[in-house]
Amino acid sequence: MPPLATVDQRLRLIHQGEGHYRATLPAALENRWYLEVRGPDNDWRLTGEASLPAQGCAQIFL
After folding, report:
1. Which domain of life is it from (predicted)?
2. Are 37 and 45 in contact (CB under 8 A)?
3. Do 46 and 34 touch, CB atoms closer than 8 A?
4. 3-class state of residue 45 by DSSP
């Protein structure tokens, strides 16, 4: 699915230790979202999907 510039979100993941990373969204999200996580040099990419809202904290396992 092509990006939708009006709703796309770009977040920096902060390393929390032991292979965990965290980012805080600027606002609550709803519906289905396509996710793309890239390395800092764009030399790798992971993709997935999420249905939101989630109860409490949403955890995404890649």
Report:
1. Bacteria
2. yes
3. no
4. strand
